[in-house]
Amino acid sequence: MEEKSMPGQRNPVYGIVQRQRLNAIFKELFRKSIHICSSFIPFFLKLAYWPVIGLLVFALIIYSVSEILRSKNIEIPLISKVTEIAARKRDENRFVLGPVTLVCGIIAAALLLPLDCARVGIFALAFGDGLASLMGKLFGKITIPGAHGKTAAGSLTCFFAVFITTFCCCQNTLISLIVALCAMFIEILPLADFDNLIIPPAIGLLFSLLSAGTLVSG
Fold first, then answer.
1. pLDDT given at position 1
2. Closest CA relative to residue 166, chosen from 157, 174, 176
């Protein structure tokens, strides 16, 4: 017989769905807080460039070793727990690649570009990509076709976040608009965790090219 909930009682299936949604939101909030914290890296790079690069490489190595050991059921205190809390459902029982691409993207931007340009790319990753996913989880109702679940709310959040942070860096409306549009386009692409790797150097390079051109006087 089909089990019906009594008047005044909440459907247990509804409760399970709500708990799953809250858990997904918590994971997204935790994961994207790490993204947003990466916005402090340009400040530290300005203070001590090579030591910070060295620390990023060291963190990358430690994390990678920890994930390899975790895949063999050997957990590293704190690191493995943090990874477990932040991991998406698609990452369960797999090497969680997001932190690797995040750090590699930041290092690539810092090594290949002037620091002012790298800062724009890192901010685009920290605030644009970081807030896009979170707002998409919280408020996304309209999905974008072919974008693997990306939402209009998330992509618009990415656009405005990148526009504001870029404008704060250069005070140029047109450059900020172009950079924000390109960042939003990259964010929409179904790149999984590889957008972390692409956004900082690509957006930083675009900003460098635009700043060096005639748009700088606009």
1. 45
2. 176
